[in-house]
Structures are given as C-alpha cells and as structure tokens.
Write a structure and sequence with these properties.
3-stranded mixed β-sheet; 20% helix; alpha+beta; Rhinovirus 14, subunit 4; single chain; 66 residues; 2 helices
Length: 66
C-alpha cells in the first residue's frame, strides 16, 4: 500500500438500539445503529415495526385510519 493515502483502520464499537455491542475493525471509531442482526425481524423470526421517525403515526393522522 502507498503511504499516507489510506484511512486509518482501527478497532471500532458498534452499539445497537436494542443494547447489543459489537466489537470490530473499521475506518470509523464508534457507530450507533437502529437495527442489528440480534434484533432484526429477518434473523429473529419475529415481526416488528421499525418506526424511527413516527411515520406510521403520521400516516394514521393524515388519512384518519383507526
């Protein structure tokens, strides 16, 4: 590799909203994610709605669905 053109590749911590902490290596130091492999419906087999910005409630208010 050529010197001084590649980003620093170091230890990194990924923290999920469910509380899971994953140690890995990355060019970014600390990452926060909303869904990981321990809580994602595809991997857990449980269905859940991932509504981080209130879009479901906004849709219900806009169209008056009850």
């Amino acid at each position: 590799m050529k010197p001084k053109i590649h980003p620093e590749y170091s230890e990194s911590t990924i923290v999920c909203a469910c509380g899971a902490v994953i140690q890995t290596r990355s060019t970014r130091q600390n990452l926060k994610v909303g869904v990981c492999s321990q809580c994602h419906p595809f991997f857990t087999g449980k269905q859940r709605y991932v509504d981080t910005e209130g879009r479901v409630e906004k849709f219900k208010r806009k169209y008056g669905l009850k």
